[in-house]
Design brief:
Helix content: 25-40%
Radius of gyration: 17 Å
Structural class: alpha/beta
Number of helices: 7
Shape: globular
CATH superfamily: Domain of unknown function DUF4159
Order of helices and strands: HEEHEEEHEHEHEEHH
């Protein structure tokens, strides 16, 4: 805990990257409604070959959340500040050789197979077609790991599951038990709490869209390895992004860092 607190208290001094929706190495044409921005701070190790870097899934919005209906492209929320602050935490709290800049993963090519850990945000807005579902299924069955985060309530869960059922129509979603190795690979995650987004600052409410009970769920392979970890009714991405703000409570940020680090170490060792 002391190491986590130490990281959080000095995060403001360490963070030199602007919180804008910058994407590194997109490689394909932008989706409708998506815009590009100049990056204000590319670190010197942007192309370094490291043991791990933050891989973020790029997807299209579900039609009910389309840009034409006034929604932003949801896959890039919190970018790049959340990814880069979390990566700084991995550097400080582990011995994993970590790149400072994120990698955006498109399922139109095979780049995903180079990354053991893949993160997808706001998956209550995603749309996964049959080709993308097949690519993710192959990735996960070959040893990949997908962490999904920042989706809330019944409606967003249903939209998320539309995609998951294309990926794994025959595998159940189950609660991850507290005793599961993923909760103890580095930090012992017990008595976990709901991690809110920054809407908490304005509303005073920890929950969003009626999602009052946090859930840690997963899909396992035939050998008992978690392939997909689902962080429902919580927002760890905001906790990473705003961990340098005195307005964001340390207890939420600390848990978000611990859980994310446990998940990525699990992905590299199981």
């Amino acid at each position: 805990m002391r190491l986590v607190v130490a990281f959080l208290t000095c995060a403001a001094a360490l963070t030199v990257y602007a919180s804008i929706q910058t994407k590194h190495n997109l490689g394909v044409e932008a989706y409708p409604g998506e815009t590009e921005h100049e990056d204000s701070g590319v670190p010197p190790d942007a192309d370094e070959q490291t043991e791990w870097c933050f891989a973020k899934l790029r997807y299209r919005n579900h039609p009910m959340y389309s840009p034409s209906a006034g929604y932003r492209q949801s896959w890039g929320i919190d970018s790049p500040k959340a990814e880069r602050q979390f990566s700084m935490g991995v550097k400080r709290l582990t011995r994993i050789h970590t790149r400072s800049i994120e990698e955006v993963i498109n399922l139109s090519n095979d780049e995903v197979f180079n990354y053991p850990w893949l993160y997808a945000v706001e998956v209550g807005h995603w749309y996964i077609d049959d080709h993308e579902a097949a690519k993710l299924r192959e990735y996960l069955l070959r040893g990949g790991f997908l962490m999904t985060d920042d989706f809330h309530g019944v409606v967003e869960w249903r939209t998320f599951m539309e995609g998951m059922e294309k990926i794994f129509p025959d595998r159940p979603v189950v609660d991850i038990e507290e005793k599961d190795p993923i909760n103890h690979v580095l930090y012992d995650l017990v008595n976990m709490i709901q991690v809110p987004g920054i809407q908490y600052w304005y509303t005073g409410s920890i929950s969003e869209h009626g999602g009052v009970i946090p859930r840690w769920r997963g899909i396992y392979d035939d050998k008992g390895r978690i392939m997909v970890a689902m962080c429902h009714n919580q927002d760890n991405g905001d906790a990473w992004e705003w961990s340098d703000s005195p307005r964001y409570p340390e207890k939420y940020a600390s848990q978000a860092y611990k859980m994310g680090i446990n998940y990525l170490i699990y992905s590299m060792t199981h």
